[in-house]
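Long-time lurker. I teach an intro course on protein structure, and each term I like to show students one example going from raw sequence to a predicted 3D structure in token notation. This year I'd like something fresh instead of my usual example. Would anyone be willing to generate the tokens for the chain below so I can use it in lecture? Attribution to the forum is fine with me.
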Amino acid sequence: MIRKFFPLDKNYLLEEAQLALQDSLLTQLVDQVKSEFEHRTNPLGLVDGFSLKIREYRCQNLKPLYNFYQNMAAVYRFKYSDNQLEFVWDGRDHQEKYIAEWTAAFADWINEFCKQELFVQAVLDLTVFLPDNRHADLVENRMNNFMLRQFGVKLHKTKGLAAMKVA
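-- Reply from a regular --
Happy to contribute to a lecture. Here you go:
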């Protein structure tokens, strides 16, 4: 499903590439968050019920992370992409170029995000601990607030993405 997050959000090839990678990149995100949490809270690798639940979690339902992913993809298009096609001189087509660039940007952002405890907790709340968590909307709001602080953009339901001044 292609949606416009801002008036010049017209790079449909980039958006298609981003949506095609959604599940694989979100699986990578969850795995990285699990290992970061384990590294931070259990550096000795001791096994208890809590750490075992996190280790044994396999991604079956990534839907709670879809909004976060699509918002991140929109921020990438808003800040780092152009709505005009450019010449690709290395023989690749635009789809291959966009897939490589988006995958690298996503990996860099996730590495940076995983350094922050609140992000790691929010992703775990949306995945591993979601059945126990009745307030998934609150976690999604935390993720949106996190994006505001990281990127300086806010997602309005009616206006789409808008640049904000963050102190």
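Some talking points for your students: The mean pLDDT is 80. The first helix runs from residue 12 to 20.
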